Amino acid sequence: MALAVSVAVLSGCGGSNAEADAKKPSAAPKTVSVEKAAADFQRMLTAFDTVGCASMEAGTCYAEMQQVLKPARTLRTAMNADKRVGPEFYSEAYALIDRMEKGVAVGEDRGGGEMNYTSNRPLVFGGAHDLSDWLDEHPLS
């Protein structure tokens, strides 16, 4: 008898987990509006500009790079979900976010300064400021 119960439990007899799973609410994250994502990005960039990087030395600003990129990624997701306009409307914004991604993909902060030609800060922060300018020039509402 115990063997029959074990086989029934292991084979899924006696109840369907698929039915229970179908009744659960979707766990998919809700996409924010482009307007909210843009405002969040602008707010993060303004906060960064108030403080900036701790120094020009390498390794002192990677966390800030990631913090500025995070709302840009959310903005890209919101733009992807926006059905009011086609992706061609956002093509320049996508390119700027890609530029920021390229800078962070280095995996470290290579420092700053005008003569530092290996710095990835211009890719991230320059791209962020260019994206901010693009958002100002292309009202989303």
Topology overview:
Blueprint: H1 2-11, H2 17-23, H3 34-51, H4 62-81, H5 91-104, H6 121-137
Helix pairs in contact: 3-4, 3-6, 4-5, 4-6, 5-6
Care to describe what's here?
There is one protein chain. The protein is an all-alpha fold and 141 residues long. The longest helix is centred in the middle third of the chain and has 20 residues. The N terminus is likely disordered.
Give a short summary of the structure.
The protein has helices at residues 2-11, 17-23, 34-51, 62-81, 91-104, 121-137.
| Shape field | elongated
Total helix count? 6
- What is the residue-averaged pLDDT? 85
Helix content: 55-70%
List keywords for this structure.
mainly alpha, 61% helix
